[in-house]
Amino acid sequence: MQSKGVEILLVEDNANDAELTLRALKQRNLANQVHVCRDGAEAMDFFSAGASPVPKVVLLDLKLPKVDGLEVLRRLKGDVRTKAIPVVVLTSSREEPDIERAYELGANSYIVKPVDFEAFARAVSDVGLYWLLLNHPPQ
Amino acid sequence: MNWSIERKLPLFVTILLVAVAIAQLTIGYGKVRQASRTLVDKRLPLATHVLADLFQIPTQRARLTALAKDPAIAAFLRTRDPADRARALAALQRITVDTSSNASLELRDFGGKLLLRTGKFTVADSVYVSPRSDSATYGPFMRQDTTLFIAVTMAVGAGPAERGGGIVQQVARVQMNARTPKALTGLAGGDIVLLVGNAAGDPWTDFGTIVPAPPKSVLTSATPVRYEQGGEMKRAAAAAVPGTPWMVVAQMPSRLIAVPARDYLRSMAPIAVLIVIAGALLAWWGSRRLTKPLVHITGAAEAITLGDLGQRVSVQRDDELGRLARSFNLMAEQVSRSQHDLEAQVAQRTQALEGTNAELESFSYSVSHDLRAPLRAIHGFARILLEDHQAKLDPEAQRLLGVIDQNTRRMGQLIDDLLAFSRLSRKELASARVDMTEMANVVADELRRAEPERNGQLEVKIGTLLPAQGDRAVLRQVFSNLLQNAMKFTRAQPNARIEVGSRPDGKETVYFVKDNGAGFDPRYTDKLFGVFQRLHSNEEFEGTGVGLAIVKRIVQRHGGRVWAEGKVNEGATFYFTLPGGN
Lengths: 139, 582
Prior knowledge:
Chain A is of the alpha/beta class. Chain A has helices at about 15-25, 40-50, 70-80, 95-105, 115-135; strands at about 10, 35, 55-60, 85-90, 110. Chain B has helices at about 5-55, 60-70, 70-80, 80-100, 180-190, 215-220, 255, 260-305, 320-390, 395-425, 435-450, 470-490, 545-555, and strands spanning about 100-110, 115-120, 135-145, 145-155, 165-175, 195-200, 200-205, 210, 225-230, 230-240, 245-255, 430-435, 460, 470, 495-505, 510-515, 560-565, 570-580.
């Protein structure tokens, strides 16, 4: 079931969170084609490289250095080449304005990261399974 | 009708003027009338006396006296000699020819027997008057058709006792013509009519014609008398003519007495009307002048009340109204300035508050995001340590990692609750009618389903609750927190019983959630609703101590109150009030 190229793009500035996320994905054997971007600018570069393969899902943190998550989301969904890519907001913020804004900009899902590790791992792996295995993106 | 001062004042002044004018005219009229009557009462007797005096020196008397002294007549009466008779007759005839008024002239003896006569008088043929000793005496007025006569008699000789004397008697026609009454009226003054006649009654004359005799009351009264004659009220005074059986009466119509008074009214009334009109106009003008600034000030005050703080009045006067206007402008200025200051202050405060609010929001955002990330790392890596390296850890190390695990979870819960509490303060509340019965039932069912193992040991009784007015979502939180608490604190109770009810209290409704659980020490009631305040240890009953604080915040934001009653091991009752939903 493993395919070539990047299947998950993880945009996460916090190294610990990134490590925990990768661990959770690894437990479900979903971590092989994960690419991690450390900030919003890096994420935008990833897409502007052009030749890069299209990921099956983007896991996007909101609070990011340089270009923040909502801006990244706005640009992805505003671009015809990338707007079909599912974007799952994965953030610590459960503030209502963030949630509303994310959905307005076209987020496909909004997950609040639980503090509890088990709950966090479950959430991440569920998201990975759903978007990689269950969801059927346009070819 | 609008009874403004502007109308009331002139009306009042006009009424006052009219009253004064009426009083003035009435009193004046009475006084003038009184004065003219007094004057008439003086003039009437005066006129009668003048006339009476005139009658005392009539020419007849003098003429008769002269006749009595005529030697031929005296001789005839003495001697009764036929020779003397011719001469006596000649003397008589001479006098008769002399006077046109003479009707007849007679000589009689003292017994009244006719001796000699010239002319003819047909009324009676006798002595009409008993002569007194030596002066001529008048008899009463006598009437024949439209002619009046009077008799004058005088004794000649020593007297009836003596032989050879007699009486000279003249019957004279009273000269009457139309001018005489006028002349007499002129004599007596303006409007007085003079009458003469017999004291005993008819005939009476005004010297123009024969007139009816005045009534007895006039003839017998010493003072002027009022009476009616010929359908007209008259006032008259009478006086006797001395030495005769006659009386003189001066009379005038009563209406003439009122003439001066009426003249007074006629001349004064238009003046009074003019004064009233002038006064009313003056009062109206003055009142307008007085009330105009007041109207301005009132209008300005009303405008200011309605929010137009720029209103000022311009009244250029130095009196009290001018001062009032200036004070008013000053006051309006101050109100306007303090209003302006207040608005500026409010704007400033609002800005400051908005700033604080924004800071608070960014603070809680930071707490939400930045505090949870490290916590998640601590928890996550502690778990990884336990999972991946369990074999290398002795039991004590594993226990210590368990403590870290527990506390990070708890801190995560605390952060979540704190954020929920903070969010609640900033959230804008909706206002709708809320069916509290349904809401309580839904919440209770959810909570019961979460603890299916207590099915036989827990009774939740929810009565019919009065509806409330408020934000459905946050009110649900109130029931959720209170019922959660009730279930938590009755967990040790084999016959747990939870009751939810309500009752109206004025405009509010009081709701309560009652349980028979662990209860609390009433001494610490005031700590129940504080943030992070707990009366039980975490080992006894889990929780962060935010639930009741959230309840209190929600209820307070709806304008209600919360309080609680309870005793240790005897259960607790939590009350909250909300505005009525009707």
